[in-house]
Prior knowledge:
Number of helices: 9
Structural class: alpha/beta
Strand order of the largest sheet: 6-5-4-1-8-10-11-13
Amino acid sequence: MTSRVPTLTAGAAAINITPPVGVDLCGFGGRAGPSSGVHDELYAKALYLCAGGQAHSTSSGQALVITCDLIGLDYDSVAAVREGVAQATGVCADEVMIGSSHTHSGPVTPCLPTMGKLDEDYVKILLRQLVSVGELAYGRAQEAWVGRNREPVSVGFNRREVSWPRTEEPVAEKGTILDHVDVLAVDGSDGPMARLFVHAAHGVTLGPDNLLISADWPGYAQRLIEQLDEGSVALFGQGCCGNINSQPRGTFEIAESQGRAMAGAVVKATELAEMTNDVEVAAAREQFRLPCFDPPPVDEAQQILQQAEAELEKAQQQQQYGNLIFCDGTLKWARWLLEMSRQQATGLAIDYEVQGFRVGDFALVGLPGEVFVEYAINIDGRSPFQQTAVMAYTNGNPGYIPTAAAYPQGGYEVEGAYRFYGGGYTMITPDSERLILDATDRVLTRLLSPGT
């Protein structure tokens, strides 16, 4: 009796992307200064999957996931990496998903220029490294087995529903959260190969006073998983944590504890997963635009500009490092807003995309931006797949993506944060939620029946 030829091949790789000491850290405005050292190194990881034919065949279903210990990426950077990967491997843009952990102790990237000075030389090297890690994973493809599972665990709370307590204090009630980790485990013929895990909790255990480069709690989780499942590459996909903060917060010891809890859940999920090499792999992507509010009347825009000018003048008097950068970026946005008001601009919108990968009865959805957790809950509930994980901060970070219900409540994510991201735009409208969920439905349907 002949054995069945494996239908799945896979490869995994990791590259160190730690920036030089002295770069500005990103995620918190008003830091006291640039980074002063490296607490733990940052990495980019990649997992290549191919099924339905020989590895690297254009007739095969392919998917390449790249994750990185960064605050996020802008659309231009994502496009450059996808183009580089395509040139090096032939894997097209629809088949390349690039996620960021959203650590607030990593370097400034172009998606958040108000949070620190950008080191353009580092970013140039970084983009080449992201292409290289994808190429390495692609080149290491071998016969593989895959399994998926979900395990209860949580390191976050809903910051719009529960008050953030003081440093090192846990919260009693967590509010609406993602109370589990989604795991996709891949093994090669000689043992563990990759562990892709998705959970929603901001990388903010280390606060704005920290000036050491760090991957925060997700970094600890990845390192511990790689120690426990020796030989594996652990890839973290940050979930829809736009309204979810890690907790408690304050120290590296707390971050390590959170990482340990997550790693334990991931390893347990892996041990209980049913492994198979007979799966379909497919990718789909839909690009569209999200509508934004019209700019305010000219007199209101002028008041916003005057306030921004006053805040910058105050920062110049105080000579506080981070505040100067933050206020200067806000002023640039206010000038853009006034110009749009004078032009009576209408029909403003931002680019957006929904991307999906299928690995058997597991679906992975990638959404750009700081997406609220309710999106993940709704997408999972509507999905035709047995298990669906949703990664935010994926393929770009244009800012917060709230639910429609969040707008009447106001708050930072709805009323002010959009002005801090790269590129001038106003806040997206509440109708964006419907557009994103409907596009996700279509992408998942295409994954279920490739060719439709």
